[in-house]
Design goal:
single chain; 144 residues; alpha/beta; five-stranded mixed β-sheet; two-stranded antiparallel sheet; 2 helices; globular
């Protein structure tokens, strides 16, 4: 419908999470002209893996971009806006991984909001769950 209405560029950036078991369910087969991000939810924000498998893509290709997924998604969205703004109407769908675990954040952000690595963490020891902070795969996670 958007293509018929003149939206030549239609990008999905971030989490697809609407089917990945068959190619026909992927965003480029669902009306989008560009996709950057991951097909599943609950990926590792730093490695872009889920269950040990890389899940990061740029259109049809696997992407090996490095960085915190939230930053990569935001950067790609800004690139799309810059690229599309002079070419008529465009549609940009952005879906961050944030609603899903793992709850991960960059170390500088955690420190900026009071993260204290000397305090116990939760996740591995059920007696420490009420204390804030955690790590997963050696990466700092958001404190509650």
């Amino acid at each position: 419908m958007l293509a018929t209405a003149g939206y030549g560029n239609r990008a999905a950036i971030g989490k697809w999470h609407l089917g990945h078991s068959r190619k026909r369910y992927l965003p480029l087969n669902r009306g989008f002209t560009h996709f950057y991000g991951h097909y599943n939810g609950a990926i590792d924000y730093f490695t872009h893996e889920r269950e040990g498998e890389l899940d990061w893509h740029n259109d049809w290709s696997t992407s090996y971009d490095k960085g915190y997924s939230t930053d990569l998604i935001s950067t790609e969205a800004v690139k799309c806006i810059s690229k599309y703004k002079e070419k008529g109407p465009f549609f940009l769908y952005i879906a961050y991984n944030a609603p899903h675990g793992p709850l991960q954040a960059k170390e500088e952000d955690l420190l900026n909001y009071g993260y204290d690595s000397s305090k116990p963490t939760f996740g591995n020891d059920s007696t420490q769950k009420e204390r804030g902070g955690a790590t997963q795969n050696g990466k700092l996670m958001q404190r509650w």
